[in-house]
Amino acid sequence: MAQLWGGRFTKETDELMKQFNDSLPFDKRLYEQDIRGSIVHAAMLGRQGILTGEETRQIIDGLESIRADLESGKLEFSSAYEDIHSFVEAHLTERIGDAGKKLHTGRSRNDQVALDMKLYVRDEIGQVDELLAHFLGTILKGMEENVDTFMPGFTHLQKAQPVTLAHHFGAYFEMFRRDRERISSIAGRMDTCPLGSGALAGTTYPLDRAFTAKELGFDRPCRNSMDGVSDRDYLIEFLGALSICQMHLSRFAEEVILWNSNEYRFVELDDAFSTGSSIMPQKKNPDIAELVRGKTGRVYGALVSILTTMKGLPLAYNKDMQEDKESAFDAIDTLKGNLKLFDGCIATMRFHKDVMAASARNGFTNATDAADYLVTKGVPFRDAHGIVGALVLHCIEKGCALDDLTLDEFRAFSDRFDEDIHSAISLQTCVEKRLTEGAPGRAAMEKMLREAREYLS
Fold this sequence. Notes:
The chain is mostly helical. The protein has 20 helices and six strands.
């Protein structure tokens, strides 16, 4: 068995214990970060005279060849190795001889794994940011194409006031914009390099930690070596941000599921993002949206898992911290996959604009505007509220919309209604006169669209 330790032990590790302890089956995905960190560490050891120039060259060339062979498939991972660190170091020594045994000088697996995970999260932050930027572009396109698409706005899942699809999509634009900004801000707080912390107390070798940090793209070395090896705050923050983002995806998915139902018929999903039934030939199911909604628990679970793992750990490194990887990898993969698929689902979705407008018109979403109309005619709002409430009840009993009432019917409830009542409560008027910042009126929406385009550019 290939291990980085063993001199202290007189017998082989129990096979079950080995399987329980080994992390290569999942931390092998850190191979690129592990090799990247080792190359910089070797370069620093060479600069400091701890390694000779020839040893440094051999180590770096050997590490680069391992990376190339892993990426080409020429070299495969083997269960003979405990973790990614022992795998890389063993293959390095096999390729270049004794010089490979010097790579670990001034370094512990504690600061090595802390570095690998930090580099990995930083890389993933960049990838999630790209996916969010693309998804925001898809949402923006939907907004631009639907400034005049009227639909009911809801509270308590009851029709409330008329809005536009652009305005509704704009709410999600703001959510995912905050997600992008939240995730980006984590990168600034994790901009410290743990390499050089050693096991917990630094090292007696004259390491140049500032050089290592700079070469690996960090602002500076971590300030405390014990914190350097035991810090997973950045991962907790990242999983927290991913959980919020996944929650937003789940909310959006829930609305798509509702809109796609026979009762709403607001949208039709593209065949490429739907499935059918094995028994009911008429079915077209919103499986992508349902899976996005369903997978939210996996992302939440990773956050709860790492919080629970870290809550009782004394300083500095403990083996418990090996549990920071599997669920985190799964959560990151899940969120990225959900973003890609739901992006495609939204981009190809078709809207039944006439159905959406009819739903707004027949749901008394203009009732507030009818009350506001009476206020402009001198009726106190509380009285206007009662008058329009009675009008709505009359319409329910008659089976019609407010727009369908004649002027005489309006005047039967209040003599303040005049010929302009129908234009005052049309969907277009109800929406267009809402011009406060952030409202669905065209002028307000155009301002939001300009700002959104500038943000994405």
